[in-house]
Amino acid sequence: MATVVIGAQWGDEGKGKLVDILCAESDICARCQGGNNAGHTIVANGTTYDFHILPSGLVNPQCSNLIGSGVVVHVPSFFHELAQLQRKGLDTTGRIFISDRAHVVFDLHQLVDGLEEVELGKGNIGTTKKGIGPCYSTKASRSGVRMSEVFDEAVLERKLRTLADGYRKRFGDLLKYDVEEELARFKTYRTQLQGFVIDAVPMISSAQAANRKILVEGANAIMLDLDYGTYPYVTSSNTGIGGVFTGLALNPFKIQDIIGVVKAYTTRVGAGPFPTEQINEIGEKLQEIGHEYGVTTGRRRRCGWLDLVVVKYSATINHYTALNLTKLDILDTFSELRIATSYT
């Protein structure tokens, strides 16, 4: 049976901590969507681990981990993060796999992400500039590169050159990119990735047939969902329960729990509507006491009171079986608490 952990607000609710607790009893921990634009911090046995693209289940030495088909993967960041964990004494050998259907985030995508934000001017989204949006765009336009295609040098070269040519026509000299340099690096990655990339469909199917415990670690949150979030100020994937099924090919009849993680107040990173935001000393106090700085970007998070309109809306979409309330202690020193129950 599977347990799903997903964010009920705009992200940064503390999903990683819950995943850390639950993965102790899980056989597989899987990411279903997003990329290294996500970020969780976990403290285990006195050691702090930062997770971005890797599933947090790696802290459990008995747990296998999967980066699912709905995820987009920046290969250099994958290996960098893996090396950081190993330097801290975490043995990941034989416990982390990438779906061969996941799409590759190139450095090209990251450069384009930055250029597109500049192009939008004051209307920019406030992305992490990790190339997530452009990668999902090339996936949707059927011009992207899957992990499986990395192993076919001719296909990879043809597709990446075509992408680069298209972006050069759009951005001209503004695009400072060397396609030869990136292709050269993938010659090394091609060998390094061989022990990680698998067909994930049989892995999940056989695990569910054997009733193994699967833990799904959602990234971002429902209010950043491409379809149900505060569009266009959203991420580029389905961050709700729908993305779990498309990103992992789970059997929907073998879901035991859908846990929505709710912070006792509200935060968001980047631009977009935020009805309960406190642009005052209250917001600053929440930032400081709650250490509200992005794990991925280091940006200060916007802070405000708990918004139950958002939580109810997210429950309507994700059909939670339980809610996990986090960071309630951050409110201990506030003499007055406010909660939004409706909008006027």
Question: Can you put this structure into words, describing what you see?
Answer:
The chain has 344 residues and is of the alpha/beta class. Helix content is 33%, strand content 18%. It contains ten helices and 16 strands. The strands form five sheets. An eight-stranded parallel β-sheet has the order 9-7-5-2-10-1-11-15, sandwiched between helices. A two-stranded antiparallel sheet has the order 3-4. A two-stranded parallel ribbon has the order 6-8. Helix 3 (107-120) packs across helix 4 (132-140). The longest helix is centred in the middle third of the chain and has 19 residues, at 153-171. The protein is globular, with a radius of gyration of 20 Å. The protein starts with a strand and ends with a strand. The mean pLDDT is 94.
Radius of gyration: 20 Å
Helix content: 25-40%
- The averaged pLDDT comes out at 94
Main β-sheet: number of strands, strand sense, barrel status? 8 strands, parallel
Termini gap? 42 Å
Order of helices and strands: EHEEEEEHEEHHHHEHEHEEHEEHEE
Percentage beta strand: 15-25%
Tell me the quaternary state. Answer: single chain
Total strands: 16
Low-confidence stretches: none
Number of helices: 10
Q: Which geometry do the CA atoms define?
A: globular
Order of neighbouring strands in the sheet with most strands: 9-7-5-2-10-1-11-15
Structural class: alpha/beta
